[in-house]
Amino acid sequence: MSQLEMIEPQSVIRNFQKLCAIPHCSGSEKAISDFLVKFAEDLGYEAYQDKVWNVIIKKPASEGYEGLSPVILQGHMDMVCEKNKATEHDFSKDPLKLVVEGNILRASGTTLGADDGIAVAYCMAILEDKSLSHPPLEIVITTQEETGMGGAMELESEKLAGKTLINIDAEQEGVFLVSCSGGIRSTLTLPLKKKAAKKEETLMELSITGLRGGHSGAEIHKGRGNANKLMGRVLYELNRKVKFNLYSLEGGAKTNAIPRECLAVVGFDPQENDAIEKRIKKIENIISQEYAKTDPDFKIVFANTNSLAKDRQLPLKKSCKNKVIHLLLNNPNGVYTMSQDMEGLVESSNNLGVILFEGDKILFLNSIRSSVESKKVEINRKLEELAEFTGCSFESGSDYPGWKYREDSKLREHMKRVYQEMYGKEPVIEAIHAGLECGLFLEVINNELDMIAMGPNMHDVHTPDEHLELDSAGRVYDFLVEALKRMKEM
């Protein structure tokens, strides 16, 4: 018997294991969407699947609850697919390799996808259990949440009647979220201009590594290093003192994850080797001191390389190299403003999440978040001005609204009361800087929706260190079941 077979509630754990066996990166959700439809239909429930693979499943009310209004249970089926550099894993076909360490569930060398697979597993367990007491349930599992909430934007809301929604996409047990930021994705694209390479040049890989990374909304306030921005500092300091050519530059994997690694390939006169190594060591020491607490494993690796692809054999012209460095240095990143209404809450931020060489151009991908619409616009305009100044094209998309706090929430008061009676303490009511689909649901489903977001304890989401506390996952499921049972009290 495996360790997971001894953990309760077994229905949740068993279903989560099933989900982990099906590849479901953001943008590649068809297989898991098809699985969920079949799962529901095999249980005899109505199930709908739309053109972007969102799934809606309806479970009738249990006996005695037929007169209650439907409750929407909501999560998303996609996951952020990140892995350690040394991990061999193909997210397009390989199942996740689950590892149990006491009370902790993680995946071996990759993200776990508990964000938000645990919500889907909860919903599957509720669908299976015919003994539960609850109102009519409308289960909504969306796609593309992690890449801009594209699924929620396309949701066929006419199939939903519920005016109460429980979002299961939070990451702290006993913390109920009641407001979140909106966001927008913006891309600066710089055309690359190249020159002839010198045959006597030494080619070296310059890597930023050892950073913790994290969720660009939930952990942006922790001051962790952004590998792309730090590479900008390194290249700038080198450029001030020594001559070198820049051949390629790539960093980060997901726009909404703080990048942990960035790699540049540089070329230089062999006689400059000692000067460059000394300069890099000095920069490494400075940055290491700055990030000693947040990123104690930070380091700069400088090594020989033979890995240049044929289409990248030519270095950038000096003017183009200087523009790249300027873009890295001046791209706004991290916390921009703090909330004036809620102490300790980030109001607006930006994350330079991905740098990507793509043929004859380089892309700088940003994730802007703000609970104040005008601040979101302000950051976006700064990026647009930076693009114009450096000769980049500029594109924005995936613009989604925030979720404003509702003072007269019957759902919030109900959930607080049930939680206090079950656990003998008040839950924490909180707003977050990360984006949730709740703001979109107000527009897409019903502007009068009464909503709350909740979830079990998860840590380091969007990174290969992501892990779930198993006992917390069990308690939150028990609480959800009890809250639904007591909906007659609302």
Query: Largest beta sheet, briefly?
Result: 6 strands, mixed
The number of distinct β-strands equals 22
Name the quaternary structure: single chain
Under CATH, the homologous superfamily of the largest domain reads Zn peptidases
Strand content: 25-35%
Entry summary:
With 490 residues, this protein is an alpha+beta fold. The chain has eleven helices and 22 strands. Helix 5 crosses helix 6.
Would you mind describing this structure in some detail?
This protein is of the alpha+beta class. The chain has 2 domains: 3-170 and 436-489, Zn peptidases (Aminopeptidase, 3-Layer(aba) Sandwich), CATH 3.40.630.10; 184-400, 2-Layer Sandwich (Alpha-Beta Plaits), CATH 3.30.70.360. The protein is built from 11 helices and 22 strands. The two termini are 42 Å apart. Helix content is 29%, strand content 28%. Helix 1 packs across helix 3, helix 5 crosses helix 6 and helix 5 (227-241) crosses helix 7. It is elongated. The strands form 5 sheets. A 6-stranded mixed sheet has the order 1-2-6-3-7-20, with helices on one face. Strands 8, 15, 16, 17, 18 and 19 form a 6-stranded mixed sheet that branches. It has a 4-stranded antiparallel sheet with strand order 4-5-22-21.
Question: Which labels suit this protein?
Answer:
490 residues, Alpha-Beta Plaits, six-stranded mixed beta sheet
Would you spell out the secondary-structure blueprint of this structure?
Elements: H1 10-20, H2 30-42, E1 46-49, E2 55-59, E3 71-76, E4 98-101, E5 104-107, H3 114-128, E6 137-142, H4 150-153, E7 164-167, E8 175-191, E9 202-209, E10 214-215, H5 227-241, E11 245-251, E12 257-258, E13 262-268, H6 273-290, E14 299-304, H7 318-330, E15 334-338, E16 346-358, E17 361-370, H8 373-390, E18 393-400, H9 410-423, E19 428-435, H10 438-444, E20 450-453, E21 458-459, E22 467-469, H11 470-485
Parallel strand pairs: 3-6, 3-7, 7-20, 8-19
Antiparallel strand pairs: 1-2, 2-6, 4-5, 5-22, 8-17, 8-18, 9-13, 9-14, 10-12, 11-13, 15-16, 16-17, 21-22
